[in-house]
Amino acid sequence: MSNSVYVGTSLDGYISDRNGGLDWLQSIPNPDNLDFGWAAFMERIDAVVMGRKTFEKVSSFDCDWPYTRPVFVLSNTLTFLPEAYEGKAALISGSLSDVLETLHRQGHRELYIDGGMAVQSFLKEDLIDEMIITTIPILLGGGTPLFGELPDHSAFEHVRTDVFLNAMVQTHYRRKK
């Protein structure tokens, strides 16, 4: 069982700009439509666990639902998801240990943790096993940070680093336990 993060970040560590925007993620021309390992990553994932704000952002995109795996939206305040997402996403609430127990009982072992608050919450409870972070060479100067304060150190080991389009640096880390 593992909980993984796959995320793009700015040089100054933000995953969205001050207005919640993500356009900057497309700031490097990608004429060959490379996916930067996304398909291979998603191939090994059983389910996606995302925060409410991330769900709202993704559902606002003008495209088809981008996930082929079950999506669980972490929220202790929402009581339902829009009807259009029935069968695509489900609400889940409670402590992270309860959430993980529920998902594992359902057979989901390899989880993709998505969204700033979700990632920060999982990190605070030492529940992230790997991170694949793609750094885009842009300074946003503010926005949603990838990392927040942690109660203690969390050591990760370097797995590998790849450079894409002679501009973006993707680094893969695994939690040292």
Written overview of the protein:
The protein has an 8-stranded mixed sheet. Strands 2-8 form a two-stranded antiparallel sheet. It has helices spanning 38-43, 52-60, 96-105, 116-124, and strands spanning 2-10, 14-16, 47-51, 71-74, 89-92, 110-114, 130-136, 144-145, 156-164, 168-175. The chain has one domain (2-175): Dihydrofolate Reductase, subunit A (3-Layer(aba) Sandwich). 19% of the residues lie in helices and 32% in strands. It is globular. 23% of the residues are buried. It contains 4 helices and 10 strands, in the order ββαβαββαβαββββ. The two termini are 14 Å apart. Strand 9 (156-164) and strand 10 (168-175) form a beta hairpin. By secondary structure, the protein is an alpha/beta fold.
Features:
Dihydrofolate Reductase, subunit A; globular; two-stranded antiparallel ribbon; 8-stranded mixed sheet; 177 residues; alpha/beta
What is the rounded Rg? Answer: 16 Å
Strand-pairing-aware structural class: alpha/beta
Number of continuous helical runs: 4
Query: What's the CATH H-level homologous superfamily?
Result: Dihydrofolate Reductase, subunit A
- Give the assembly state of these chains: single chain
Series of secondary-structure elements, N-terminal to C-terminal:
EEHEHEEHEHEEEE
| General form | globular
Strand content: 25-35%
Mean pLDDT: 95
SSE topology:
Blueprint: E1 2-10, E2 14-16, H1 38-43, E3 47-51, H2 52-60, E4 71-74, E5 89-92, H3 96-105, E6 110-114, H4 116-124, E7 130-136, E8 144-145, E9 156-164, E10 168-175
Parallel strand pairs: 1-6, 1-7, 3-4, 3-6, 4-5
Antiparallel strand pairs: 2-8, 7-10, 9-10
